[in-house]
Amino acid sequence: MRFIITGGSGFVGRHLIRKLHTLFPKTEIHNIDINQSDEIVGFSIYHDIDISDKSSFSSFKFDDDDVVFHLAAHIFHPQTPYRTKRTKYFDKLNVGGTRNLIDCMKQNNVRRLAFLSTCMVYGVPKEKIIKTNHALKPNGPYGSTKVAAEELLNNFAEKKNNHVLIFRPGLIAGPGRFGLLGKLSFLIKNNLPIPMIGSGLNRYQFISIYDCVDALIQFIELDFPSGTYNLGSKNPPIIKDLLTSLIEFAGSKSFLMPTWGYGVKTILNLLDMLNLTLMYPEQFLLADSEFVLEISDLEDEL
């Protein structure tokens, strides 16, 4: 058995590879990515492969007893293209890369895969507690391409003896995470005011990177179960209390600034249309929503 990680140089991948190396020191770990991270040199075997280019897979040979962790994806970052080009950008890797991976797995009779999707597949929630059977109505191309990737993997899972485990995590937090959490850390570190979209009285669920990695490893330890599960922390506090705790923990002089949610989202949407993006629609449209994932089935079954 070998562990094959797509996107192993990313935030989740680096943590997963280190944990796998600790738990299974004699098992080969292969990192399929377009760059190598210094943090995991010595913990994995690196393969310079772009999974969105099917011909790129010719340099890698799968074994039929491989276990695949599919983490590679385009996410939101400073290099995310303008709104009109985002669908193609996300589709190329998130859908095309997934399709190429499945094709290569089929050719080599590889049957076991765990996939990290996203809670953004749900869009603005219609229920106070979001179950995995909630309607999938994402607010943009990132969530939409994750839905499409899930469909490809569910079709793959229908074949006898194939095993696919899909996780839909909330916002993953932990050391080395940038993006919105990096901006928040900057404000707190520099004692600057922290604007909230809305009153901050809503709950928005996070998950620790360590809990996320532990969930992925359950795929191995529970003998490769199949299914779709939400990932999130238990009993999430309201945003206002969460941010207040962070400010106090950091010893910062920052303070919270509630805003008119509808007005702020309208402005952010206009800025995004003008290619002056401060936040992406899939981020700010959920910011003042009650967003709590149902995780009881995860606790019961995994």
Overall description:
The protein is an alpha/beta fold and 302 residues long. It has a domain at 3-176 and 204-234: NAD(P)-binding Rossmann-like Domain (Rossmann fold, 3-Layer(aba) Sandwich), CATH 3.40.50.720. It is 37% helix and 16% strand. The protein contains nine helices and 13 strands. It has helices spanning 11-23, 83-107, 141-157, 180-189, 209-221, 239-250, 261-273, 281-284, 296-301; strands at residues 3-6, 29-33, 45-48, 67-70, 112-116, 129-130, 163-169, 171-173, 194-195, 206-208, 227-231, 256-257, 292-293. The strands form four sheets. The chain has a seven-stranded parallel β-sheet with strand order 3-2-1-4-5-7-11, sandwiched between helices. A two-stranded parallel ribbon has the order 6-13. The model has no long low-confidence stretch (mean pLDDT 94). This is NAD-dependent epimerase/dehydratase domain-containing protein. It holds the Pfam family Epimerase. Residues 4-232 form the NAD-dependent epimerase/dehydratase domain. InterPro entries: Epimerase_deHydtase, NAD(P)-bd_dom_sf. Belongs to the NAD(P)-dependent epimerase/dehydratase family.
Task: Jot down its keywords.
Rossmann fold, 302 residues, seven-stranded parallel β-sheet, 9 helices, Epimerase_deHydtase, two-stranded parallel ribbon, 13 strands, alpha/beta, globular
Q: Name the CATH architecture of the domain at 3-176 and 204-234.
A: 3-Layer(aba) Sandwich
Based on CA atoms alone, the radius of gyration comes out at 19 Å
CATH topology of the domain at 3-176 and 204-234: Rossmann fold
Quote the average pLDDT.
Answer: 94
Tell me what portion of residues adopts beta-strand conformation. 15-25%
Number of continuous helical runs: 9
What gross morphology would you assign? globular
Number of strands: 13
Overall SS class = alpha/beta
Query: What is the CATH homologous superfamily assignment of the domain at 3-176 and 204-234?
Result: NAD(P)-binding Rossmann-like Domain
Span between termini? 22 Å
Poorly predicted runs are none
Largest sheet, if any?
7 strands, parallel
